[in-house]
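Student: Please help interpret what follows.
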Amino acid sequence: MRSELTFFDFVRDRYVADVEIMVNGMPTGSGGFEYTLTFIGHNNYASIGDTIQFATQLADTQDIIRKAIVKNIKLGLVRYIIDSELMKSVTIDFAKREAITDAPAVDKWNFWVFRLGGSGSYNSESNKKNTSIHTELSINRVTDASKFSFYSYHNQYFNRYVVDGEEVSARNTNYGLSALYVKSFSDHWSAGGFYKGFHSIYQNIDFSHSVAPAIEYSYYPVSEVMRRQFRCVYQTGFRRLTYLETTIYDQLEETLPYHQLTGIMGVTEPWGTFNAELNGYQYLHDLKKNSLSLGLNLNWRVIQGLSVWLHSNFSLINNQISLAKSEGDASEILLNNRQLPTNFRFGSSFGMSYTFGSISNNVINPRFSGVH
Protein backbone atom coordinates (compact mmCIF):
# COMPACT_ATOMS: atom_id res chain seq x y z
CA MET A 1 0.00 0.00 0.00
CA ARG A 2 2.73 2.45 0.92
CA SER A 3 4.76 1.79 -2.20
CA GLU A 4 1.73 2.36 -4.46
CA LEU A 5 0.42 5.44 -2.65
CA THR A 6 3.58 7.55 -2.35
CA PHE A 7 1.57 10.66 -3.30
CA PHE A 8 0.31 10.65 0.31
CA ASP A 9 2.11 10.47 3.66
CA PHE A 10 1.25 7.55 5.91
CA VAL A 11 1.28 8.13 9.66
CA ARG A 12 1.45 5.36 12.19
CA ASP A 13 -1.42 6.53 14.40
CA ARG A 14 -5.02 7.57 13.69
CA TYR A 15 -4.79 10.41 16.21
CA VAL A 16 -2.48 12.42 13.93
CA ALA A 17 -4.09 11.53 10.58
CA ASP A 18 -6.07 13.88 8.36
CA VAL A 19 -7.85 10.94 6.73
CA GLU A 20 -8.53 7.57 8.33
CA ILE A 21 -9.51 4.54 6.23
CA MET A 22 -11.15 1.48 7.75
CA VAL A 23 -11.00 -1.64 5.56
CA ASN A 24 -13.53 -4.39 6.35
CA GLY A 25 -14.04 -7.63 4.42
CA MET A 26 -16.89 -10.16 4.49
CA PRO A 27 -17.01 -13.47 2.54
CA THR A 28 -19.41 -13.62 -0.41
CA GLY A 29 -21.44 -16.56 -1.66
CA SER A 30 -18.96 -17.19 -4.49
CA GLY A 31 -16.03 -17.60 -2.11
CA GLY A 32 -14.57 -14.13 -2.64
CA PHE A 33 -14.84 -11.09 -0.38
CA GLU A 34 -16.84 -7.89 -0.38
CA TYR A 35 -14.69 -5.04 0.89
CA THR A 36 -15.98 -1.84 2.46
CA LEU A 37 -13.64 1.15 2.61
CA THR A 38 -14.86 3.75 5.11
CA PHE A 39 -13.16 7.16 4.78
CA ILE A 40 -13.23 9.34 7.90
CA GLY A 41 -11.93 12.91 7.78
CA HIS A 42 -10.16 14.56 10.72
CA ASN A 43 -8.89 18.06 11.46
CA ASN A 44 -9.69 20.33 8.48
CA TYR A 45 -11.44 17.41 6.73
CA ALA A 46 -13.78 16.45 9.58
CA SER A 47 -16.87 17.22 7.47
CA ILE A 48 -15.83 14.88 4.63
CA GLY A 49 -16.63 11.16 4.74
CA ASP A 50 -17.34 8.47 2.19
CA THR A 51 -17.87 4.72 1.76
CA ILE A 52 -16.79 2.57 -1.19
CA GLN A 53 -17.70 -1.09 -1.67
CA PHE A 54 -16.28 -3.59 -4.15
CA ALA A 55 -16.00 -7.37 -4.43
CA THR A 56 -13.21 -9.81 -5.29
CA GLN A 57 -13.44 -13.35 -6.64
CA LEU A 58 -12.33 -16.65 -5.10
CA ALA A 59 -9.62 -17.12 -7.74
CA ASP A 60 -8.15 -13.62 -7.27
CA THR A 61 -4.54 -13.62 -6.12
CA GLN A 62 -3.27 -11.46 -3.29
CA ASP A 63 -1.72 -9.16 -5.88
CA ILE A 64 -5.08 -8.66 -7.64
CA ILE A 65 -6.77 -7.96 -4.30
CA ARG A 66 -4.10 -5.46 -3.27
CA LYS A 67 -4.40 -3.62 -6.59
CA ALA A 68 -8.19 -3.45 -6.23
CA ILE A 69 -7.87 -2.02 -2.71
CA VAL A 70 -5.30 0.55 -3.84
CA LYS A 71 -7.45 1.58 -6.82
CA ASN A 72 -10.48 2.21 -4.62
CA ILE A 73 -8.44 4.00 -1.96
CA LYS A 74 -7.20 6.38 -4.66
CA LEU A 75 -10.79 7.03 -5.76
CA GLY A 76 -11.89 7.77 -2.22
CA LEU A 77 -9.00 10.13 -1.50
CA VAL A 78 -9.80 12.39 -4.46
CA ARG A 79 -12.57 14.07 -2.43
CA TYR A 80 -10.02 15.25 0.14
CA ILE A 81 -7.69 16.97 -2.33
CA ILE A 82 -10.16 18.23 -4.94
CA ASP A 83 -10.03 21.81 -3.60
CA SER A 84 -6.29 21.85 -2.90
CA GLU A 85 -3.16 22.58 -4.91
CA LEU A 86 -2.45 18.84 -4.94
CA MET A 87 -5.26 18.39 -7.48
CA LYS A 88 -3.01 19.91 -10.15
CA SER A 89 -0.85 16.77 -9.97
CA VAL A 90 -3.78 14.37 -10.43
CA THR A 91 -4.63 12.81 -13.78
CA ILE A 92 -8.02 11.15 -14.27
CA ASP A 93 -8.65 8.88 -17.22
CA PHE A 94 -11.63 6.77 -18.31
CA ALA A 95 -11.60 3.71 -20.52
CA LYS A 96 -13.51 3.95 -23.79
CA ARG A 97 -17.18 3.35 -23.21
CA GLU A 98 -18.45 0.13 -24.71
CA ALA A 99 -21.91 -0.44 -26.10
CA ILE A 100 -24.48 -1.04 -23.37
CA THR A 101 -27.06 -3.76 -23.83
CA ASP A 102 -30.26 -4.19 -21.88
CA ALA A 103 -29.71 -7.92 -21.45
CA PRO A 104 -28.82 -8.70 -17.81
CA ALA A 105 -25.83 -10.88 -17.01
CA VAL A 106 -26.78 -14.55 -16.74
CA ASP A 107 -25.21 -16.74 -14.08
CA LYS A 108 -25.11 -20.20 -15.64
CA TRP A 109 -24.51 -21.72 -12.19
CA ASN A 110 -27.50 -19.88 -10.67
CA PHE A 111 -25.40 -18.81 -7.63
CA TRP A 112 -24.28 -22.38 -6.77
CA VAL A 113 -20.64 -22.70 -5.66
CA PHE A 114 -18.84 -26.05 -5.16
CA ARG A 115 -15.47 -26.54 -3.48
CA LEU A 116 -13.44 -29.72 -3.01
CA GLY A 117 -10.20 -29.55 -1.07
CA GLY A 118 -7.64 -31.52 0.85
CA SER A 119 -4.42 -31.14 2.79
CA GLY A 120 -1.86 -33.24 4.56
CA SER A 121 1.14 -32.90 6.81
CA TYR A 122 4.02 -35.09 7.95
CA ASN A 123 6.58 -34.30 10.64
CA SER A 124 9.27 -36.70 11.74
CA GLU A 125 12.05 -36.81 14.31
CA SER A 126 14.08 -39.73 15.64
CA ASN A 127 11.57 -40.47 18.37
CA LYS A 128 8.44 -38.75 17.10
CA LYS A 129 6.23 -38.88 14.00
CA ASN A 130 3.01 -36.98 13.28
CA THR A 131 0.85 -37.48 10.20
CA SER A 132 -2.46 -35.82 9.32
CA ILE A 133 -4.77 -35.97 6.28
CA HIS A 134 -7.73 -33.67 5.78
CA THR A 135 -10.36 -33.63 3.00
CA GLU A 136 -13.45 -31.45 2.69
CA LEU A 137 -16.36 -30.66 0.40
CA SER A 138 -18.59 -27.59 0.51
CA ILE A 139 -21.67 -26.59 -1.51
CA ASN A 140 -23.19 -23.14 -1.13
CA ARG A 141 -25.85 -20.96 -2.67
CA VAL A 142 -26.15 -17.44 -1.30
CA THR A 143 -28.58 -14.74 -2.42
CA ASP A 144 -30.14 -11.75 -0.65
CA ALA A 145 -33.32 -13.76 -0.16
CA SER A 146 -31.91 -17.08 1.07
CA LYS A 147 -28.78 -19.04 1.95
CA PHE A 148 -27.98 -22.75 1.67
CA SER A 149 -24.73 -24.20 2.96
CA PHE A 150 -23.42 -27.78 3.06
CA TYR A 151 -20.03 -28.82 4.44
CA SER A 152 -18.42 -32.23 4.99
CA TYR A 153 -14.97 -33.23 6.25
CA HIS A 154 -12.82 -36.26 6.99
CA ASN A 155 -9.72 -36.04 9.18
CA GLN A 156 -7.13 -38.66 10.08
CA TYR A 157 -4.34 -38.19 12.61
CA PHE A 158 -1.58 -40.62 13.50
CA ASN A 159 0.94 -39.89 16.26
CA ARG A 160 3.87 -42.08 17.31
CA TYR A 161 6.33 -41.43 20.14
CA VAL A 162 9.24 -43.44 21.50
CA VAL A 163 9.84 -42.89 25.23
CA ASP A 164 12.56 -44.84 27.05
CA GLY A 165 12.69 -47.33 24.17
CA GLU A 166 8.93 -47.97 24.31
CA GLU A 167 6.69 -46.96 21.40
CA VAL A 168 3.40 -45.22 22.11
CA SER A 169 1.04 -44.56 19.21
CA ALA A 170 -2.51 -43.39 18.59
CA ARG A 171 -4.71 -43.07 15.52
CA ASN A 172 -7.66 -40.69 15.55
CA THR A 173 -10.32 -40.36 12.87
CA ASN A 174 -13.18 -37.90 12.81
CA TYR A 175 -15.62 -36.97 10.08
CA GLY A 176 -18.89 -35.21 9.73
CA LEU A 177 -21.24 -33.06 7.72
CA SER A 178 -23.42 -30.05 8.39
CA ALA A 179 -26.06 -28.13 6.47
CA LEU A 180 -28.20 -25.06 6.97
CA TYR A 181 -30.91 -23.24 5.10
CA VAL A 182 -32.15 -19.77 5.99
CA LYS A 183 -34.80 -17.56 4.40
CA SER A 184 -34.78 -13.78 4.85
CA PHE A 185 -38.08 -12.05 5.64
CA SER A 186 -36.79 -8.52 6.30
CA ASP A 187 -33.64 -6.63 7.30
CA HIS A 188 -34.16 -7.96 10.83
CA TRP A 189 -35.91 -11.36 10.71
CA SER A 190 -35.00 -14.70 9.12
CA ALA A 191 -35.85 -18.37 9.68
CA GLY A 192 -34.51 -21.75 8.62
CA GLY A 193 -32.92 -24.83 10.08
CA PHE A 194 -29.72 -26.75 10.89
CA TYR A 195 -28.50 -30.32 10.45
CA LYS A 196 -25.27 -31.60 11.94
CA GLY A 197 -23.80 -35.12 11.94
CA PHE A 198 -20.35 -36.28 13.04
CA HIS A 199 -18.19 -39.16 14.26
CA SER A 200 -15.59 -38.53 16.98
CA ILE A 201 -13.38 -41.08 18.71
CA TYR A 202 -12.25 -38.37 21.13
CA GLN A 203 -15.84 -37.74 22.27
CA ASN A 204 -16.78 -41.48 22.28
CA ILE A 205 -19.39 -40.81 19.57
CA ASP A 206 -19.94 -43.39 16.85
CA PHE A 207 -22.31 -40.94 15.17
CA SER A 208 -24.42 -37.98 16.24
CA HIS A 209 -27.36 -36.53 14.27
CA SER A 210 -28.89 -33.14 15.15
CA VAL A 211 -31.88 -31.55 13.40
CA ALA A 212 -33.35 -28.22 14.48
CA PRO A 213 -35.48 -25.43 13.00
CA ALA A 214 -34.25 -21.95 13.93
CA ILE A 215 -35.14 -18.27 13.88
CA GLU A 216 -32.90 -15.17 13.94
CA TYR A 217 -33.49 -11.56 14.92
CA SER A 218 -30.98 -8.84 14.06
CA TYR A 219 -31.30 -5.64 16.08
CA TYR A 220 -29.45 -3.68 13.39
CA PRO A 221 -30.24 -4.06 9.68
CA VAL A 222 -28.19 -6.90 8.20
CA SER A 223 -26.80 -4.44 5.64
CA GLU A 224 -24.81 -2.79 8.47
CA VAL A 225 -22.96 -5.98 9.46
CA MET A 226 -19.62 -4.54 8.29
CA ARG A 227 -19.73 -1.86 11.01
CA ARG A 228 -22.01 -3.27 13.71
CA GLN A 229 -24.16 -6.28 14.50
CA PHE A 230 -26.25 -7.64 17.34
CA ARG A 231 -28.00 -10.89 16.40
CA CYS A 232 -29.82 -13.60 18.34
CA VAL A 233 -30.42 -17.10 16.94
CA TYR A 234 -32.71 -19.59 18.67
CA GLN A 235 -32.96 -23.25 17.64
CA THR A 236 -34.72 -26.26 19.11
CA GLY A 237 -34.70 -29.85 17.91
CA PHE A 238 -33.54 -33.43 18.54
CA ARG A 239 -30.16 -35.11 18.78
CA ARG A 240 -29.70 -38.83 18.06
CA LEU A 241 -26.49 -40.33 19.51
CA THR A 242 -24.84 -43.73 19.25
CA TYR A 243 -21.70 -44.33 21.30
CA LEU A 244 -18.50 -46.31 20.76
CA GLU A 245 -18.42 -47.41 24.41
CA THR A 246 -20.99 -47.45 27.20
CA THR A 247 -21.25 -43.99 28.75
CA ILE A 248 -21.10 -43.01 32.41
CA TYR A 249 -24.93 -43.00 32.24
CA ASP A 250 -24.96 -46.64 30.99
CA GLN A 251 -26.13 -45.65 27.50
CA LEU A 252 -25.08 -47.01 24.12
CA GLU A 253 -27.61 -44.94 22.18
CA GLU A 254 -30.24 -42.31 22.91
CA THR A 255 -32.39 -39.57 21.35
CA LEU A 256 -32.62 -36.29 23.24
CA PRO A 257 -34.46 -32.98 22.72
CA TYR A 258 -32.45 -29.78 23.10
CA HIS A 259 -32.51 -26.06 22.49
CA GLN A 260 -29.79 -23.47 21.98
CA LEU A 261 -29.64 -19.68 22.09
CA THR A 262 -26.76 -17.79 20.48
CA GLY A 263 -26.07 -14.08 20.80
CA ILE A 264 -23.53 -12.41 18.50
CA MET A 265 -22.27 -8.85 18.88
CA GLY A 266 -19.70 -7.00 16.78
CA VAL A 267 -18.52 -3.41 16.51
CA THR A 268 -15.96 -1.90 14.14
CA GLU A 269 -15.08 1.70 14.93
CA PRO A 270 -12.07 4.00 14.47
CA TRP A 271 -10.90 3.09 17.98
CA GLY A 272 -10.75 -0.62 17.07
CA THR A 273 -12.97 -3.71 17.08
CA PHE A 274 -14.95 -5.66 19.64
CA ASN A 275 -16.64 -9.03 19.07
CA ALA A 276 -18.51 -11.25 21.50
CA GLU A 277 -20.43 -14.53 21.17
CA LEU A 278 -22.55 -16.10 23.90
CA ASN A 279 -23.89 -19.66 23.53
CA GLY A 280 -26.33 -21.43 25.81
CA TYR A 281 -27.12 -25.14 25.17
CA GLN A 282 -29.55 -27.25 27.20
CA TYR A 283 -31.04 -30.75 26.98
CA LEU A 284 -34.77 -30.58 27.58
CA HIS A 285 -35.14 -34.02 29.18
CA ASP A 286 -32.87 -32.90 32.03
CA LEU A 287 -32.41 -29.13 32.36
CA LYS A 288 -29.35 -29.61 34.57
CA LYS A 289 -27.47 -30.97 31.57
CA ASN A 290 -26.40 -27.72 29.95
CA SER A 291 -23.45 -25.62 28.85
CA LEU A 292 -22.71 -21.91 28.58
CA SER A 293 -19.82 -20.41 26.62
CA LEU A 294 -18.58 -16.88 26.06
CA GLY A 295 -15.95 -15.71 23.59
CA LEU A 296 -14.50 -12.18 23.54
CA ASN A 297 -12.15 -10.42 21.11
CA LEU A 298 -11.02 -6.84 21.65
CA ASN A 299 -8.54 -4.71 19.73
CA TRP A 300 -8.44 -1.20 21.19
CA ARG A 301 -6.30 1.76 20.16
CA VAL A 302 -6.43 3.57 23.49
CA ILE A 303 -4.44 6.74 22.83
CA GLN A 304 -1.80 7.82 20.35
CA GLY A 305 0.76 5.02 20.13
CA LEU A 306 -0.92 2.73 22.70
CA SER A 307 -2.82 -0.40 21.58
CA VAL A 308 -4.34 -3.18 23.70
CA TRP A 309 -5.74 -6.54 22.56
CA LEU A 310 -7.57 -9.33 24.38
CA HIS A 311 -8.80 -12.74 23.17
CA SER A 312 -10.63 -14.81 25.74
CA ASN A 313 -13.10 -17.71 25.99
CA PHE A 314 -14.83 -19.32 28.93
CA SER A 315 -17.22 -22.28 29.17
CA LEU A 316 -19.31 -23.84 31.94
CA ILE A 317 -19.83 -27.50 31.02
CA ASN A 318 -22.51 -29.72 32.60
CA ASN A 319 -23.54 -31.84 29.60
CA GLN A 320 -20.75 -34.34 28.88
CA ILE A 321 -23.25 -37.14 28.27
CA SER A 322 -20.92 -39.03 25.91
CA LEU A 323 -18.09 -39.68 28.41
CA ALA A 324 -17.00 -43.31 28.28
CA LYS A 325 -17.53 -45.35 31.44
CA SER A 326 -14.09 -46.95 31.16
CA GLU A 327 -11.17 -44.72 32.10
CA GLY A 328 -8.89 -45.70 29.21
CA ASP A 329 -5.11 -45.94 29.44
CA ALA A 330 -2.65 -43.11 30.03
CA SER A 331 -1.37 -43.08 26.44
CA GLU A 332 -4.85 -42.28 25.07
CA ILE A 333 -5.18 -39.35 27.45
CA LEU A 334 -1.67 -37.97 26.91
CA LEU A 335 -2.08 -38.19 23.12
CA ASN A 336 -5.40 -36.33 23.35
CA ASN A 337 -7.33 -39.32 22.08
CA ARG A 338 -9.91 -39.46 24.89
CA GLN A 339 -12.11 -36.80 26.43
CA LEU A 340 -11.73 -36.13 30.14
CA PRO A 341 -14.54 -34.99 32.47
CA THR A 342 -14.57 -31.27 33.27
CA ASN A 343 -17.03 -28.62 34.40
CA PHE A 344 -15.30 -25.58 32.90
CA ARG A 345 -12.89 -24.53 30.21
CA PHE A 346 -10.96 -21.25 30.04
CA GLY A 347 -8.41 -19.74 27.71
CA SER A 348 -7.17 -16.20 27.31
CA SER A 349 -4.41 -14.17 25.74
CA PHE A 350 -3.74 -10.47 25.94
CA GLY A 351 -1.10 -7.93 25.09
CA MET A 352 -0.32 -4.28 24.59
CA SER A 353 2.15 -2.17 22.68
CA TYR A 354 3.30 1.43 22.82
CA THR A 355 4.96 3.04 19.84
CA PHE A 356 6.65 6.44 19.74
CA GLY A 357 9.01 8.33 17.47
CA SER A 358 8.61 9.45 13.87
CA ILE A 359 4.99 9.46 12.72
CA SER A 360 5.52 9.78 8.96
CA ASN A 361 8.45 7.57 7.97
CA ASN A 362 7.28 6.10 4.64
CA VAL A 363 10.57 4.47 3.62
CA ILE A 364 10.27 0.85 2.46
CA ASN A 365 13.50 -1.17 2.69
CA PRO A 366 13.09 -4.98 2.33
CA ARG A 367 16.80 -5.86 2.59
CA PHE A 368 17.55 -8.88 4.85
CA SER A 369 13.82 -9.29 5.56
CA GLY A 370 12.73 -12.85 6.35
CA VAL A 371 16.21 -13.97 7.49
CA HIS A 372 16.39 -15.60 10.95
